[in-house]
Specification:
The chain has six helices and five strands. The protein is of the alpha/beta class.
Length: about 170
């Protein structure tokens, strides 16, 4: 099985490989950078749109058995901001979204809504290229959950519907 991922970020590629392995699926995973078509810091529905746009971009570029798009972003609930990853998987005549766990950000929603770059200011406290390493989740959980694991869970959730439907009829 050939699996195309809408990113060349090694963390995302390892997340997809890990999810497939945990589901007992053998595959060759390739990454290709494609635009998400959403804001640099996706908010609410944009997170879902970004993951789906990555898959649609991949489909125009190459043929694969399964396509996976991953997008991390921010959600608002009860005047609190949360970070979560969304995976979108498409293949075998099916498609599905999956979500990672989420964690609350210590950023005031009104500041974020006024200027989303406040998120990057917060991230800079932890160093450069955090998204290609342990991620913010890794820093905030003291390494208990890394960004790879965070994304991997979203991919498992998306793939669980695709591959379980095959057995359910």
């Amino acid at each position: 099985m050939l699996v195309a991922v809408g990113s060349e970020n090694p963390v995302k590629l390892k997340a997809v490989e890990g999810a497939l392995k945990k589901l007992g699926l053998e595959a060759k995973v390739i990454g290709k950078a494609v635009p998400s078509g959403v804001s640099e810091i996706p908010f609410e529905e944009e997170v879902f749109e970004g993951a789906k746009n990555r898959v649609e971009g991949l489909e125009r570029l190459l043929r694969a058995d399964l396509y996976v798009g991953l997008e991390s972003g921010i959600f608002l609930y009860e005047n609190r901001l949360f970070m979560q990853s969304v995976a979108y998987a498409k293949g075998f005549g099916r498609s599905s979204f999956g979500l990672s766990p989420g964690f609350e950000l210590p950023i005031k929603p009104e500041e974020f809504k006024k200027d989303r770059k406040v998120f990057f200011e917060f991230m800079r406290r932890f160093g450069e290229d955090l998204g290609k390493r342990e991620g913010l989740v890794g820093r905030l959980t003291k390494g208990i959950i890394t960004r790879r694991e965070f994304c991997e869970l979203a991919v498992i959730m998306a793939l669980s519907k695709i591959f379980n439907e095959e057995f359910l009829g």
